[in-house]
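Researcher: Let's do a round of design. I'm pasting the structure tokens now; please hold your answer until I've finished.
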């Protein structure tokens, strides 16, 4: 069987981390979203929202981390690896805030390709803000649009995961792979 590196994407608060946690509980190899880790490390250094205060530095750190996740996933013994957000997310978020970024951001999106992309739609009923998620629901919807545009720009067919129970969403994803 060929290695499948599968990414779950969607705006903030669409349930990606919940699904990743459930996939882990079911024994699948999964890589978590790294932006929370980067944000928490910055907060420990006194920077409340690194993405808002230094978006390029934040995005560089995410890009490095996501490239590393991809290469680590290639080395996993498991044939299927799930990742919470992919490299094109970095570009989508930079486009969302209207900032420019170096050419190596787009080069990474062009060179590193995932097997499948599952997109979770905005879902106001489950949306929650927290200390690392600064966006409101309307902003999350706008980010979703940027994610769709960016992933399609890099040639991905997006598989939309229906709004449903966690169990049914997992079954839907597993059925598609």
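Researcher: That's everything. Go ahead.
Model: Designed sequence:
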């Amino acid at each position: 069987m060929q290695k499948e590196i599968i990414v779950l994407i969607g705006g903030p608060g669409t349930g990606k981390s919940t699904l990743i946690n459930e996939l882990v509980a079911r024994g699948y190899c999964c890589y978590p979203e790294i932006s929370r880790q980067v944000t928490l490390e910055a907060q420990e250094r006194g920077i409340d929202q690194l993405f808002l205060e230094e978006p390029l530095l934040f995005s560089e750190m995410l890009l490095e981390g996501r490239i590393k996740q991809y290469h680590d996933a290639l080395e996993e013994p498991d044939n299927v690896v799930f990742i919470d957000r992919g490299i094109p997310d970095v570009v989508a978020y930079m486009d969302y805030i209207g900032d420019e970024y170096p050419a190596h951001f787009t080069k990474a999106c062009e060179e590193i390709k995932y097997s499948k992309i599952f997109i979770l739609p905005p879902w106001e009923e489950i949306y929650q803000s927290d200390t690392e998620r600064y966006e409101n629901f309307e902003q999350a919807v706008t980010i979703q649009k940027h994610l769709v545009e960016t992933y399609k720009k890099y040639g991905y067919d997006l598989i939309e995961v229906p709004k449903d129970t966690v169990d049914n969403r997992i079954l839907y994803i597993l059925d598609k792979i």
